[in-house]
Amino acid sequence: MRVRLASCLAFLAACSASAEPVRAYLMLTTATAPLGNVTELQIINTSSEELSFTGDLFSHRGEALGTSGASLSDAPLAPGARLALTSAALETRFATEPWTHPAMLEVQADVENASFVAMVRLRSAPNGLTTNLNCVAEGAVHSVEGIDQLDSTYLRLINTTDERITDIRGTLRDADGDVIGTGNRRLLVSLRPKAGAWLSAARLAQIVGSRWNGQASLYVSHHPGLKLMNLNVIGNETFANFSCLDRAPNMRGMEATTRYSVTFTARWNAADHGEVPGGAHFTTLAGAAVNADADLWVPGELASRGLENLAELGQTATFLAEIATKTAAGDAGESITSSGTGATGTSVFELTVSRDLPNFTFGSMIAPSPDWFVGLSEFPLLDGEGRWIEDTGDMGLPAWDAGTETGTEFSLGGTATNPPQPIRLLTETVGGTIEFDDGTIDGSYLATIRFRRIP
Q1: Are 103 and 29 in contact (CB under 8 A)?
Q2: What confidence score (pLDDT) does residue 384 get?
Q3: Full-model pTM
Q4: pLDDT value at position 131?
């Protein structure tokens, strides 16, 4: 294992000593040659025996490109030897036309548990400088350039798994550690298996609602198999990969359990949200610490009877009974309730989470309404490194439609939806004048929530 780790660090490359494939995360093609950015894949045999290699190539959409399991060499590679494949050579071996967006390549050796590494070299025009692309991070990247910097940042998010990753969220922090704009904003609704997507610093500023100076760190919600690449364009012509770093040992945040002070803040006001109905309020908050199997409510799925009652009437009894069932099955902790608020105000409570139950689910009715609510579904309190998040900052809570009642007014006068519809972000014209779009009114949230870890 020490030899394998040394190889990874020495080459800043993907490496393997098991059946898990080695990945080349950003393979360009001859179609981009006029731009001057050409990649070369290098595979180094760090084992003590000859190895042959095969590969599978995936487009930016996660679709297979060309021949599956294509051979990457004509002859076995000797111990210590290096195989270099240009973009043109890969197109030939996979019998595919040049692809127009960066692709991901998965490489396998013909000997189980053999050790080898892969490195991707990018040559930039017009200066011909070369950088290693095949270095990725998990959970966070730390060189996101602000508006005052000469360099530009482009982030690549890559799903290396065979399952779709949904609701990818992020929080930007400045050099002082303060949250930039709004924390826990959605970066991507979903990312297909084996797919990749770009986010520029300019797009991040739009997402969080604020620009910044200097360098920032982006902390991304925990999703196993989600890789992050931090590329900065220097002088408008040379790419540099800032995904690699070394870490000092730090056991803080690795405890088995922890406690949070949670602050729910209602922010429903006429200045930001148009006319506020009489008697506007948020009902009792009800929820629990959960694992990924609790499924108390899930976007895109039908509401349970408990969530229906909570969203339509603000009644929590059935929802709490559903939590109790999940508690008995080991998928949830003890239920938590906290007082509701008026249109504005706060509700504060404490939450205990564990590594078995590291997420939080809750709901609170937007009242009066047909079946609209705010809440979180299995929000993770562990970061990408498996540490407890210290402080989320104020996170916007979008409005959700439970899909159980029809109606376009702030009132309880809806009729049952038949058949019921999946839970979705509220996108509706309310009262003929108030436009909800993806759960917000002109990007403004009706409520926010903040988790602060208790020392």
Answers
A1: yes
A2: 77
A3: 0.56
A4: 75
3-state helix, strand, coil in the chain (%, to 5): 10, 45, 45
Which amino acid is it at 290?
V
User: What is the rounded CA–CA span in Å between residue 122 and residue 119?
Assistant: 10
Q: What is the CATH number of domain 140-241?
A: 2.60.290
Helices 305-313 and 317-328, axial angle in degrees (round to 10)? 150
In 3D space, the residue among 264, 252, 321, 282 whose CA is nearest the CA of residue 449 turns out to be: 264
Sign, CA torsion 287/453/169/119 = negative
Topology of 257-453 in CATH? Immunoglobulin-like (2.60.40)
Class of domain 2-132: mainly beta
pLDDT at residue 34 in the model: 42
Tell me the pLDDT band of 254, cut-offs 50, 70 and 90.
Answer: confident
DSSP string, 190-239: EE-TT-EEEEEHHHHHHHHT---SSEEEEEE---TTEEEEEEEEETTTEE
Preceding peptide of 368 cis, ω within 30° = yes
* Positive/negative CA dihedral, 254, 290, 325, 259: positive
Q: Do domains 2-132 and 140-241 have the same CATH topology?
A: yes
Q: How far is CA 276 from the centre of its chain?
A: 33
Q: How many CA atoms lie within 13 A of 167 on its CB side?
A: 13
The set of residues, in sequence order, having a beta carbon less than 8 Å from that of 325 and lying 6+ positions away, is none
Domain ranges, ordered by start, for the chain: 2-132, 140-241, 257-453
pLDDT of residue 370: 96
Radius of gyration of the chain (CA): 25
Question: Among candidates 156, 61, 129, which has minimal Cα distance to 100?
Answer: 61
**Which of 9, 5, 10 lies closest to 115, judged by CA?**
5
Residue 50 φ/ψ, nearest 5 degrees:
-65, 145
Q: What is the dihedral of CA 307, 311, 315, 320, to 10 degrees?
A: 20
